[in-house]
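Help: read this over?
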Amino acid sequence: MKRTIATLIAGLFATAAFAQTPAPAPTTTPDSATPPAVAKAEATHEKQEAKATTKHVKKAKHHKKAAAKDAQKDAAADTTAPMAGK
């Protein structure tokens, strides 16, 4: 019986000690983790990348159109060449 009472009392002391420890302080983050100058530079860089990508896509489309026109001209020239020989 003494052992049971001693265990209960030890448990109460442990509970009291655990309850008194302070809770960890909540970490507060500022509204913006990055400084405004860095954010502005990143935004500018993203805009420049978008423009370069768009320009590259436009050039690729232009080259495809030019290649298609050349192919049509070649096909038209091939079909008319044998008739000119007759």
